[in-house]
Amino acid sequence: MKKMILTFFIFLFFPIYIFAYSKYIVPGGQSVGININSDGLIVSGYYKVNNNYINKNIKIGDRIVKINNINVNSINDLVTILDKEINNDINVKLIRNHKYIDEKLILKEENNKYKTGLYIKDNIVGIGTLTYIDPVSKIYGSLGHEIVLSDTNSRVEVKNGNIFDSIVTSIVKSRNGYVGTKKADIFFNSKIGTIEKNTSNGIYGFYTKKIIQDNLIEVADFDEIKKGSAYILTVTDNKNINKYEINIVEKYYNRRNTPKSFGFELTDKKLINKTGGIVQGMSGSPIIQNGKIIGAVTNVVVDNVSLGYGISIITMLKEGDKLRN
């Protein structure tokens, strides 16, 4: 009897995901603008106040979520609260390494202004490439890897966010030892989707524009990925999605569920002449092989920028499909 009860409770509390993603999806390739409002205010650095660093008890990467027990969601919230609390003890509640911590915040006057000595961020803006849209659930996936704040090397926790239409205006070329980037204009008046989560396997949300389904493509299982020719879909100018040839050089079974599940090299001379190699902003570009979508571009090898890594489309679809549950 005890054994039966134990089995029941393990079944009851163990998370179960029933994946129902579509076998045919809409491939992406378009450049998207990304705007994420973080869950709490991110401490990204320090500056001197009266030639001294203050508040070193608060660490880079901490997220401030409350000041004197009042929730803070933006820098404006922070300024408004501190203006009222200058003459009082200031208590802050932080999240550090997924744990809540209580600390004191010190204010010092300099040039007739009270300052914290902390650099704070409340949102992240950037560009990437849309990977896919599920035409049934309207869930999309992009990037294929997490968004990390460069100042803190920590994942950005999403309070809310959106993706927007974007056009590529120029390319700063990559070269061995240096990764270039796409330069783009983001149209913040043209929202195309929400951002619900930022995970190690990409960002995911719901596509809010009308979905055109005349170019559906079949999904390939990881086992179907083969060494040899394939191509990526990406934008290198304006909003034009082009095909560029690559060569799959390796597949890593022990990393099949990670953003580095297979390796590839750029072979398209037109793309290499345009970009020098893989550039920032190319993450999420769909990879097509034998008429099926197999994954997306995720990383570049810095010492040889014609080499990169991809994530299996199955891994992305499973991650995105968790939004249904």
Task: Map the helices and strands.
Layout: H1 2-13, E1 24-27, E2 31-46, E3 48-49, E4 52-53, E5 63-67, E6 70-71, H2 75-85, E7 91-96, E8 99-104, E9 108-110, E10 113-115, E11 118-133, E12 139-142, E13 148-149, E14 154-155, E15 158-172, E16 181-194, E17 197-199, E18 202-206, E19 217-219, E20 228-235, E21 241-251, E22 262-266, H3 269-275, E23 286-289, E24 292-300, E25 307-312, H4 313-321
Parallel strand pairs: 19-24
Antiparallel strand pairs: 1-11, 1-19, 2-5, 2-11, 2-15, 3-4, 5-6, 5-7, 7-8, 9-10, 11-12, 12-18, 13-14, 15-16, 17-18, 20-21, 20-23, 21-22, 22-25, 23-24, 24-25
Structure, described:
This protein has 325 residues and is mainly β. The chain has two domains: 18-38 and 123-324, Thrombin, subunit H (Beta Barrel), CATH 2.40.10; 48-116, Pdz3 Domain (Roll). It is built from four helices and 25 strands. Strands 20-21-22-25-24-23 form a six-stranded antiparallel beta barrel. The chain has a two-stranded antiparallel sheet with strand order 3-4.
